[in-house]
Hints:
Helix 1 (about 35-45) runs parallel beside helix 2. The protein has a 7-stranded mixed β-sheet. It has 10 helices and 7 strands. Strand 2 (about 50-60), helix 2 (about 70-80) and strand 3 form a beta-alpha-beta unit. It has a single domain, classed as Alpha-Beta Barrel (TIM Barrel), CATH 3.20.20. It is α/β, with parallel strands linked by helices.
Amino acid sequence: MIRIPHEVQLHITHSCNLTCEGCTHYSNHGHSGMLSLEEGSEWMDRWNKRIIPERFTILGGEPALNKDLTKFIYLAKEKWPNSYLELISNGFHLHKHPDLPKALIDTQTVIGISVHSREHPDYIEKFKPVYKLAKKWLLMGVKVEMRHSSLDWLRQYQGYGDNMLPYEDNNPESSWKNCVSRMCIQLHEGKIWKCPGLAYLPMQAEKYNLSEKWDKYLKYEPLHHDCSDEELVEFFNRKWETYCDMCPANKEHFKPSADPLLPVSYWKKLNK
């Protein structure tokens, strides 16, 4: 068993109820599809006797759109009992899972609720029930964290859909150093992928008529479960590589937050 200082992430759905600009998982591009509990268990079984990730995260898309979310929480604890367990959600569908708080407490799983805007009035109004539910769960003993995603959001690619293009700044080392996903290994199709951008790129190519500029990135080979120990160690020790050139290397490409620091008055509004 090899302990790895990485986060392993599992999409239990590619669908999302939000369309956040520049989503690093392409969940804003209208994808669909739910991971079944059986298939998810099979994927984990291929790796849980070989690696112990520092953190194992269930996410999407929006994971609360999957009817088996609560069962996935217990499954993750079963498969990786010695990892820090986490669920990431935008919160808007959590109320559909009344048994989820107990599962989070039983498994000591932290739920991170992503906050996608700090100033948009419509979003603030719609987020009020999410915040109140989070407060209720906190009182029940659930470990809840508010994650202000708008603060470090970035444009991983240029354009949208058919017009999506890689950055190709010709400095993959800098791209890797600036990447918010550089430690976010993906467990997808039973294989281990370097990052969400590479893992779900074939899904993008299947749905959209992507430019030939993406062809070299679509040739990326993920790690198979029957790899040697040497290949496994080399994969997790690898930092930047040529594939990183698809993402921005220069700071000016990064999307600054349009929202100011969260004022106290915001939380007072939600408490009303």
